[in-house]
Amino acid sequence: MTAPTKPPQSHSTDAGCDAPLATPLQATVIDWFDENARDLPWRRPEAGPWGVMVSEFMLQQTPVNRVLPVYEQWLTRWPRPADLAKDAPGEAVRAWGRLGYPRRALRLHGAAVAIAERHGGDVPTDHAQLLALPGIGEYTAAAVASFAYGQRHPVLDTNVRRVLARAVTGVQYPPNATTAAERKLARALLPDDEGTAARWAAASMELGALVCTAKNESCHRCPITALCAWQLAGKPEHEGPPRRGQTYAGTDRQVRGKLLAVLRDAHAPVPQAALDRVWHEPVQRARALDGLVSDGLVEPLQGGMYRLPLS
DNA sequence: GAGACGTGGAT
DNA sequence: TATCCAAGTCT
Questions:
Q1: SS3 for A288?
Q2: pLDDT score for A5
Q3: How far apart are CA A93 and CA A91, in angstroms?
Q4: Domain ranges for chain A
Q5: Backbone phi, then psi, for A288, in 5-degree steps?
Q6: CATH architecture for the domain at A24-38+154-232
């Protein structure tokens, strides 16, 4: 199991003269990670910052197993940001395949252009510069800075939020939207040492992904079950309003998805008539197509023809 | 801050 | 079959 760079010494608070690098909670999770981390391509040293960044875009709301093959294709085709920047944005959208939320492909292309233009072709190391790139928000900026460059940032994704909600706060699920209290907690739990903080970020995320899952959590395999506030409280069920689930069937999103699928599979401009076949209801169909055009995902041509954007 | 934004596997 | 969920971002 290859995991990111290991600190030179033990994380444990063993008897001795050195100050602990982390408290027992963090040290235990990091030790568990050392033994149980998945060998994912973007965690290998050869992935580099660009590989980490591409993976983070793809993993926004898309499961690891579906990302893996597309990630390999992207890194083979566009091994550096400048390679992607040279290609048409529509090629990024096409190569995105069925990962979903294709605006991410457009934003990743835009980020590559910005990196080529403003950063000499290298993924920036600075959190604020990362945050300024299209498609990079609070989470992704922290993740790239932490995983690619070993920096110390609170990395608060859905996995970490759930782990902290249970282990520390003692509730089954975190709030729907990230709160200031969660940020404060994540900040407080960040180990002082930079490298240890980066490992804690990856480790706590992995624990949420493999053990402390949203449903069917595996507390019997959890390294911190004895410290877990939720466990100690008897694993009370979530109270309050149901966590919002999004409907999909019949929405504009579904229509947009069908329209874009036609354009992805075509390697020449597509006539309006071909797009009309994907959805029976003309008003919604037109609205969805307009939306794709205004989002820059589709380029309208003369004579009612459409294609993925060339620029 | 609520809602839009894709897709497919699991239960 | 219906709902939930997956390393979020943007408006």
A1: helix
A2: 40
A3: 5
A4: 24-38+154-232, 41-149, 252-301
A5: -65, -45
A6: Orthogonal Bundle (1.10)
What sign does the CA torsion over A286, A291, A292, A293 have?
A: positive
- Under CATH, to which class is A41-149 assigned? mainly alpha
pLDDT (0 to 100) of residue A239: 81
Nearest amino-acid residue to B9, taking CA and C1': A63
% of chain A at pLDDT higher than 90: 88
Catalytic one among A56, A91, A206, A299? A56
Residue A137, sorted as left (phi over 0), alpha (psi -120 to 50) or beta, turns out to be beta
Q: How far is the CA of A99 from the C1' of C2 (A)?
A: 23
Q: Is the CB of A191 under 7 A from strand B?
A: no
The string of pLDDT tens digits covering residues A167-181 is 999 999 999 999 999
A1-15, A140-154, A202-216, A226-240: range with lowest mean pLDDT = A1-15
pLDDT (0 to 100) of residue A269: 98
Does A41-149 match A24-38+154-232 at the fold level? no
